[in-house]
């Protein structure tokens, strides 16, 4: 078993950053690949960092067997200290010296999937953040950048493809049926961007010529049977290369760019220089096996990893506290990429709404819970715990606000300056903000850069309160904005944030009032500010925080009438959607807070407004689907001081059933209007039509559950059987499962039989069942059964997530049981997974982050379950950090 429990728990602090005592200039790695025992020869040239006081060389290492160490070709003395290899008799002076280290490791025993591991007979590496030290002893920190030459040697029959970063210099046969390949990376890089792959893979290849006339080879490597699922990833990669050149002037800097898919991966994908390694989930797709959502995710993740080539690889992080330097910026870039690929402006808005929904349902709770941390954290125990929605999604919002403040061209100028200054360096979030500000000296950002940078240093979601007053006599509208941010762990008092508030005013008929540009973007930089609008003829309806211009909670006591006006007329599609969400939320909260059994929470005005959206003749289908989707249970719960998850679940289900029933005829109309049978294309417009048709089918089946009607479930089953693509097929299956119809019991095994050899489709099959609405406590037993299914594999992260996370993290109505059995199940799984994969276990451990908000008996039961995990003597640092913070 792996040595999870090494060393004491130490806290790493940002303020303790010190430059490295040595530089590593070149690395020559030679691998003799063998699943049981791989030999690694690491030959480095190093020199002292003249800028810091002389000190011993301390190299990181983990789970390595050390065979030999040579300095300048001769044996030398060394010692081991806290897992590090320490050399203190190194040559005097600042001359370079060579250090050779021979180690072995056991890739087939590597269940953590960090470092060098084997997945389905193929070797892969994962080095970010600190996995390289599981391959060889090294200065495993991002500010040490070296030139790599890598020689791979392996059995030719089993491992015909040998890949590493950069360019293939040489390859050829070796004795005993072995062969070798030698790769040279022309770019210096930190160790976390190192990668190798060795196995029996095939590649889709495409040659492209970039704007500058340079030729590049693009390759997507997969297992032999998966070749027919690589076209979309390749098209996405081609689009990514073109986009980064066109939008930011950033070209591909390699002759060859490779993507390799693996089915065993802890995260989504990894941006290793020139050799991106992906979870199969974000590569493989064809219309028979992947849904529209999968297609869209692949496009965005392929883009994301490709864009890292500049924002992450060419300019990297000085230390891991700066993670958002590359992640926030790269998420922003992939979001913009997906939006720019949309032909219609309405599709851009849909993407924005989806991104904000993720932020508000996942990041806002994180920012209000025990794991709250600034976009640039100040300390961590385990860096893997800080690959969070805060660093990624809130970090992207921070970059987006900069663009809002300096304008699109100004932002492009800032990016240009950032690369002029920092190409080839390892830098900080401050360096980035400084470059954007310096390129735009007359902007609000430059004028108040220090205030703006509080977005990096302060955790928590600010709340912005807005109050409007209309003076009819003076024909004047006065808007007062004020801000407040609650304390977060370790930060009791917050300074004001710099908050760009994009806004507009509508008249009572919903017509946009003309405003000067300066009034359409108000920058709140103090505790409060007042804006005066003159020449306003009647009391306006304010449309605030348009496009979600800042990651804040807006508190404005708008009337239903105002929200209905915005829902019907706002020219800002985001706020139009938001008006519908606020109307629904208001009703949900009232029903949750009311006494007695849950009645019908929706009124005629709301239902009519939803009907008007559904039947609207110009809004597009994707927007309608988003607007008709009620706020999630998680989002509703976040608005409450004390949460009874069963009550929240019951209320939301009641609302959904009411919409299903009241709009029956409209859903039937929507289904017939939007179900098309033409050739499948995953573009946003047709995906939106499928999404709306799928939603309609679910609503019709839900209603049939109450009315006893058999027609719609029958239609859904028929659709399930003859759908021409996975989206329609899965939506039909889901309609049956979600409505709990008896036909689901026939459809599910049929679906399994159809796709028994498609791992990613089976993941969906598992997830659908583990995430289904709970009816009388039936889901937990179903989850246990799924775990006993022959296709269930706990050690495969995708499969484990598809059952366990779908239940614990994504199905609150089933997970929060009055008998606490959900929590006991959770603690058992956290402990079980922690024994072989701490990273995945620590993510699961986050499922009870918000336990303090729960009503009794949930609250005590949840605390007990967390305490049970925390009481384990043998716990990884990853899980220990999460549960300790949860209990504090
Ligand atoms: N850097 C990867 C990304 O955002 C995420 C990742 C982190 C993958 C750590 C693996 C391990 O694109
Ligand atoms: Zn990333």
Secondary-structure blueprint of this entry?
Elements: E1 12-13, E2 22-32, E3 38-48, E4 57-59, E5 65-71, E6 74-75, E7 79-81, E8 84-87, E9 97-105, E10 115-119, E11 122-126, E12 145-155, E13 161-164, E14 167-174, E15 178-184, E16 189-190, E17 196-199, E18 202-209, E19 215-222, H1 231-248, E20 256-262, E21 269-270, E22 275-279, H2 292-307, E23 316-317, H3 323-340, H4 345-368, E24 379-380, H5 389-422, E25 426-427, H6 429-438, H7 444-447, H8 449-452, H9 454-457, E26 463-471, E27 476-484, E28 499-506, H10 517-520, E29 521-524, E30 528-534, E31 541-544, E32 553-556, H11 560-569, H12 573-593, H13 604-615, H14 621-628, H15 633-638, H16 645-662, H17 664-674, H18 684-707, H19 711-722, H20 726-738, H21 744-754, H22 759-770, H23 779-788, H24 797-808, H25 812-815, H26 821-834, H27 838-845, H28 858-870, H29 877-887
Parallel strand pairs: 2-12, 19-20, 20-22, 23-25, 26-32
Antiparallel strand pairs: 1-24, 2-3, 3-9, 4-8, 5-6, 5-9, 7-8, 10-11, 11-17, 12-15, 12-16, 13-17, 14-15, 18-19, 21-22, 26-27, 27-30, 28-29, 28-31
Helix pairs in contact: 1-2, 2-3, 3-4, 3-5, 4-5, 5-6, 11-12, 12-14, 14-18, 16-18, 17-18, 18-19, 18-20, 19-20, 20-21, 22-24, 26-27, 26-28, 27-29, 28-29
Zinc ion binds at residues 304, 308, 327, 330.
Protein name: Aminopeptidase N
EC number: 3.4.11.2
Domain Aminopeptidase N-like N-terminal: 29-193
């Amino acid at each position: 078993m792996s040595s999870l429990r090494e060393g004491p728990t130490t806290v790493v602090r940002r303020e303790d950053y010190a430059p490295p005592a040595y530089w590593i200039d070149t690395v020559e790695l030679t691998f003799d690949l063998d699943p049981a025992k791989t030999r690694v020869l690491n030959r480095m040239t190093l020199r002292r960092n003249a800028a810091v006081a002389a000190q011993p060389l301390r190299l990181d290492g983990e789970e390595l067997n050390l065979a030999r160490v040579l300095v300048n070709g001769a044996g030398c003395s060394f010692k081991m200290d806290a897992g590090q290899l320490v050399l203190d008799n190194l040559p005097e002076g600042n001359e370079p010296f060579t250090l050779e280290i021979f180690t072995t490791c056991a890739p087939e025993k590597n269940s953590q999937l960090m470092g060098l591991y084997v997945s389905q007979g193929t070797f892969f590496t994962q080095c970010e953040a600190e996995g390289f030290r599981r391959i060889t002893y090294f200065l495993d920190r991002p500010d040490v950048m070296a030139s790599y030459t890598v020689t791979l040697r392996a059995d030719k029959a089993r491992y015909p493809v040998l890949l590493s970063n950069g360019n293939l210099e040489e390859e050829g046969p070796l004795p005993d049926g072995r062969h070798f390949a030698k790769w040279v990376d022309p770019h210096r890089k930190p160790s976390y961007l190192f990668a190798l792959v060795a196995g029996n893979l095939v590649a889709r290849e495409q040659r492209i010529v970039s704007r500058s006339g340079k030729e590049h080879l693009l390759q997507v490597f997969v297992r032999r049977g998966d070749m027919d699922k690589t076209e979309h990833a390749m098209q996405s990669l081609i689009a990514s290369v073109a986009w980064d050149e066109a939008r930011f002037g950033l070209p591909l800097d390699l002759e060859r760019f490779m993507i390799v898919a693996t089915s065993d991966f802890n995260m989504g994908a990894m941006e290793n220089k020139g050799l991106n390694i992906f979870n199969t989930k974000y590569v493989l797709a064809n219309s028979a096996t992947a849904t529209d959502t999968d297609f869209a995710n692949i496009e965005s993740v392929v883009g994301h990893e490709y864009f890292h080539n500049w924002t992450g690889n060419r300019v990297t992080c000085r230390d891991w506290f700066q993670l958002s330097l590359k992640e926030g910026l790269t998420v922003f870039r992939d979001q913009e990429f997906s939006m720019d690929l949309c032909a219609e402006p309405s599709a851009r808005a849909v993407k924005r709404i989806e991104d904000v929904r993720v932020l508000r349902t996942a990041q806002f709770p994180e920012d209000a819970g025990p794991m709250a941390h600034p976009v640039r954290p100040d300390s961590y125990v385990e860096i893997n715990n800080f690959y969070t929605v805060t660093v990624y999604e809130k970090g992207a919002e921070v970059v987006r606000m900069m663009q809002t403040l300096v304008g699109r061209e100004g932002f492009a100028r800032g990016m240009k300056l950032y690369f002029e200054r920092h190409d080839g360096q390892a830098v900080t979030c401050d360096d980035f903000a400084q470059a954007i500000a310096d390129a735009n000296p007359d902007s609000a950002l430059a004028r108040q850069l220090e205030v703006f940078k509080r977005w990096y240093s302060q955790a928590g979601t600010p709340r912005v309160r807005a109050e409007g007053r209309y003076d009819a006599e003076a024909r004047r509208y006065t808007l007062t904005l004020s801000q407040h941010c609650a304390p977060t762990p370790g930060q009791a008092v917050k300074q004001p944030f710099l908050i760009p508030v994009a806004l507009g005013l509508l008249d009572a008929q919903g017509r946009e009032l003309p405003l000067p540009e300066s009034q359409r973007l108000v920058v709140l930089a103090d505790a409060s500010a007042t804006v005066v609008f003159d020449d306003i003829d009647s009391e306006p309806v304010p449309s605030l925080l348009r496009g979600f211009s800042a990651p804040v909670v807006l508190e404005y006591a708008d009337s239903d009438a105002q929200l209905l006006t915005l829902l019907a007329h706002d020219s800002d599609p985001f706020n139009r959607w938001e008006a519908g969400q606020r109307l629904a939320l208001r009703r949900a909260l009232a029903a949750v807070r009311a006494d007695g059994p849950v009645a019908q929470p929706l009124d005629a005005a709301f239902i009519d407004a939803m009907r008007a959206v559904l039947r609207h003749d110009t809004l597009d289908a994707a927007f309608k689907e988003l607007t008709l989707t009620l706020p999630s249970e998680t989002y509703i719960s976040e608005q409450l001081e004390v949460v009874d998850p069963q009550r929240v679940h019951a209320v939301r289900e009641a609302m959904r059933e009411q919409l299903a029933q009241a709009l029956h005829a409209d859903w039937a109309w929507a289904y017939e209007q939007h179900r098309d049978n033409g050739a499948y294309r995953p573009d946003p417009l047709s995906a939106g039509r499928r999404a709306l048709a799928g939603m309609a089918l679910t609503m019709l089946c839900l209603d049939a559950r109450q009315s006893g009607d058999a027609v719609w479930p029958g239609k859904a089953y028929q659709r399930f059987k003859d759908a021409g693509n996975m989206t329609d097929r899965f939506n039909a299956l889901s309609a049956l499962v979600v409505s709990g119809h008896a036909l689901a019991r026939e459809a599910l095994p049929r679906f399994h039989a159809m796709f028994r050899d498609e791992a990613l489709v089976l993941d969906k099959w598992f997830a659908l069942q583990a995430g289904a609405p709970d009816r009388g406590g039936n889901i937990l037993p179903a989850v246990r059964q799924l775990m006993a299914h022959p296709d269930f594999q706990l050690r495969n992260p995708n499969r484990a997530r598809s059952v366990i996370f779908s239940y614990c993290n994504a199905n609150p109505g089933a997970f929060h049981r009055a008998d606490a059995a959900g929590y006991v199940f959770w603690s058992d799984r956290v402990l079980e997974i922690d024994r072989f994969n701490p990273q995945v276990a620590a993510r699961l451990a986050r499922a009870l982050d918000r336990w303090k908000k729960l009503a009794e008996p949930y609250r005590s039961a949840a605390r007990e379950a967390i305490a049970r995990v925390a009481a384990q003597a043998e716990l990884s640092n990853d899980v220990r950090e999460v549960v300790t913070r949860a209990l504090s």
